[in-house]
Amino acid sequence: MSWAIAFTVCGAVMCVAAVLAVLSLGQVRLSGSAAIERDGLATGVRAPVWSLPDSAGVVHTSPPALPLQLVVFADHSLKSFPAVAEGLRELLASGAAVEIVMLLKQPNPIAEPVLAELGLRAVSVLTGSPRLYADYNVRVGPFLIFVDSAGRVRSSSLVNHSWQVAKLHQLACLPVAAAQR
């Protein structure tokens, strides 16, 4: 009888250890810089389809009517990355045929005042949802995703500098390879 109890206790301890090992591996995979590299959507993948109003009631859609749409995932954290704001201002000033929208995870009353303070009044602020962020596979910001009028992702990345905004736009403007259609 005592061997049966010892065997059962050992089995339970081993099961708990196995579950903890699996959970630890999952945690390691979901954290750190390697995990962030897997955020966003791959080039050529279909972006989520949505239709959302901005604060003025103007409805914005994805896929966009313009050749390109830049979806910015930043909430109010954009203020912490002035070089990204500079890159967005440069993109707006370039006259490129791109619609820039900031997609919020939840309502945020300070997002528009912060954008105005950063000289980005032309950026439309849209309130999405945690589910929409998950559909885009975005966990951290500022994260940028360019979507074309066919609804395909043209480029995406976590950004910290203005040159990264320009490089992503340049990549988004490259012709689509046959493998991405």
How many domains make up the coordinates? Answer: 2
Q: Would you report the number of β strands?
A: 7
Outline, from the CA principal axes? elongated
**Taking all residues together, what is the mean pLDDT?**
83
Task: Quickly name the level 1 CATH class of the largest domain.
Answer: Alpha Beta
| CATH superfamily heading of the largest domain | Glutaredoxin
Strand content: 15-25%
SSE sequence, one letter per element: HHEEEHEHEHEEH
Quick structural summary:
Helix content is 39%, strand content 20%.
Features:
181 residues; alpha/beta; two-stranded antiparallel sheet; 6 helices; elongated
Descriptive overview:
This protein is α/β, with parallel strands linked by helices and 181 residues long. The protein has two domains: 2-31; 42-180, 3-Layer(aba) Sandwich (Glutaredoxin). The chain contains six helices and seven strands. It has helices at residues 2-30, 33-37, 82-93, 111-117, 130-136, 162-172, and strands at residues 50-53, 59-62, 68-73, 98-104, 124-127, 143-148, 153-158. A five-stranded mixed sheet has the order 5-4-3-6-7, with helices on one face. Helix 3 (82-93) packs across helix 6 (162-172). It is elongated and about 80 Å long. The protein starts with a helix and ends in a 9-residue tail after the last helix.
Write the layout of secondary structure elements.
Layout: H1 2-30, H2 33-37, E1 50-53, E2 59-62, E3 68-73, H3 82-93, E4 98-104, H4 111-117, E5 124-127, H5 130-136, E6 143-148, E7 153-158, H6 162-172
Parallel strand pairs: 3-4, 4-5
Antiparallel strand pairs: 1-2, 3-6, 6-7
